[in-house]
Amino acid sequence: MDITTSNGGISIRLPLKSGIFLNGRYRVVASLGSGGFGITYLALDTARNDRKVAIKEFFPKNCTREGKEIVFTEEPEKTFQRIAEFIEEAKMITTVEDKRIVKVLDYFLENNTAYYVMEYVEGKTLKEHIKLHGPPGTREAIELIKEIALGLKAIHDRGILHGDLKPSNIMINSEGVKIMDFGAASFTNTIYTMTHGKIISWSYSSPERFHNQTIITLQSDIYSLGGILFFIVSGEDPIPAPEREKGIALPIPPVSYKIRRIIKKAMALEPFQRYPTVNHFLKALKSFF
Q: Which residues are catalytic?
């Protein structure tokens, strides 16, 4: 259960109960967690021998549930637009074919809202992994960020920006890494506006994402990629961009000069000072091999 307050009132987001079926085939097992725009469930696909799947339900904060249906508090036109954007997010991800990207298997409308179904990935998030095991050695760190960068390249190759790349949105297990959660995804060179409570990750979002009416480019994701490398080698979140814009320096971790140089360039405050593309970032990593 997720409780939020709005305009002096209390909004309770109740997850669907275990055993409920969605789209006539997906049986909800449990809630995996919630974010600003929805709840994610573990479910079984009864049409595929009870295969485990993850289902994301569009259920923004300040909305409630009556029975199974979501009750929105805004104008119907705005609700329709936001649901359409959620489905568009799912369609966007289906165009990306790469082993490092969580696959979207299905999407549908039900319960006055929208859902999309993803492959269920066992393992821990990169954030959990580093917090549990500590920062890895240089070679392992470079291999790890290389795999994440290759996944990001596959996204960019389809003309898509992830928009919210951070350690908690990357799964890691014995098979490698999986980039997930495309809730802030958009097409490249989109004019970014601070509407609908757009997603901002305090330590990993680029400076331009904190400003309204900004054209978001590939360099926004590259800033986040640099932040992830910072986290991998230090075990700490980098200083948020707004604080850096006030003059607080980014304390580069005490690692090799090459890694420090990559972090510094990827996380430059000005987009034009960062790597132009993920390919350029990958080229910088090649010097380690």
A: 164
